[in-house]
Amino acid sequence: MNRAKTYFLSVRPQFLPAIIIPVLIGTAAAWNEDSFAPGVFLLTLIAAISYHAGMNILNDYFDYLGGTDNINTGALTPFTGGSRFIQQGLVSPKETLDIGLGLIALGSVAGIWLALTTTPWLFVIGGVGLFTGFFYSAPPLSLAGRGLGEITVGLDFGILAVLGTYVAQTGHFDLKPLAASIPVACLISTLLFINEFPDYEADKATGKRTLVVRLGPKRARYYVAALASAAYLSIISGVLAGWLPLISLAAVLPLIIIIKGMKVFLHNYNKGPGIIPAIKSVILAHFCTGIIIAISLLF
User: Fold this and answer.
1) Burial grade of 58 (CB within 10 A; 0-12, 13-18, 19 or more)
2) What is the pLDDT of residues 177-211, one digit of tens each?
3) CB distance 234 to 183 below 8 Å
4) pLDDT tens by residue, 220-260
5) pTM exceeds cut of 0.85
């Protein structure tokens, strides 16, 4: 494998739609108000993807330092346990750190330019996102290891990403993009929550007290189903409150995908690769729900 391909795969590109979807939602909400600048959209996308890719790599680096990924060999899936590139000797720890910091620097340059040319509110939104994203896995905070991973991911890849995109285009805040951000925030948090189950033994052994470690897998599985359900309840609530257009109710349709995935998950939560269909269902539901919400906001 050549170095460029290795570096690209190390950012775990299969998860990048998790940040692209909220950017599209925020852009659609701004478009609805006749506020859209192609250059701002492009810079927002560059900043968001760079931050996400950088955080993915840094998560691998800090999990390597903490020893979690090093001993996690019992229940790996293509979606859990990190990229494993450090463990396989494909990328050195120093390379991993350098790439992660480089991507964050790129995202910061784009973000600073946006804040200087659009609204200084982006310094606040971007600063909170950068701080929580970096310390998601980095000591001394290690938010994921304190049971705050789901909240952090929902905030960064849901609320802040949608609001930041919207504010960059319009220069102000509004309840519509906030309401639109909650479903994708819940679903991306659900994905992280499920991904913690195969890592349970390794996380517990290294003192990384994720929500699954704190609750125990048997009890935590029901919280996963509740969090996924909350995504679709928030859509209905947003429409009833008048924050989302009536057509946004179409975004409830992917609930069918979630129900099927949750049935698999509740029966296979402790079987490692057995939860892969559930993980795929959440990824698909997140994508479909986000796209439908974005389209609904255009009308």
Assistant:
1) buried
2) 999 999 999 999 999 999 999 889 888 988 889 99
3) yes
4) 999 999 999 999 999 999 999 999 999 999 999 999 999 99
5) yes
**pLDDT at site 79:** 59
Q: pLDDT tens across 97-118, in order?
A: 999 999 999 999 999 999 999 9
- DSSP codes, 136-165: TTSTTT-GGGGT-HHHHHHIIIIIIHHHHH
* Each residue's pLDDT tens digit, 33-92: 999 999 999 999 999 999 999 999 998 888 888 777 666 565 555 555 556 677 777 788
196-225 burial, b for 16+ CB within 10 Å, e for fewer? Answer: bbbbbebbbebebebbbbeeebeebbeebb
Q: Which two structure tokens, joined as six digits, stand for 185?
A: 């925030």
Peptide bond into 120 cis (omega under 30): no
Kindly list the distances between the CA atom of residue 38 and the CA atoms of 21, 173, 279, in Å, as whole numbers in the listed order: 17, 20, 33
CA distance 196 to 81: 9
Domains by residue range for the chain, with CATH: 15-296 (1.10.600)
pLDDT of residue 284: 96
Q: What is the CA radius of gyration of the chain?
A: 19
150's tokens: 């789901």
Backbone angles phi, psi at 159, to 5 degrees: -65, -55
Within 8 A by CB and 6+ apart from 197, the residues are: 212, 217, 220, 221, 269, 270, 275
Closest CA to 47 of 97, 98, 122: 122
* DSSP one-letter code for 14: G
Amino acid identity, position 118: T
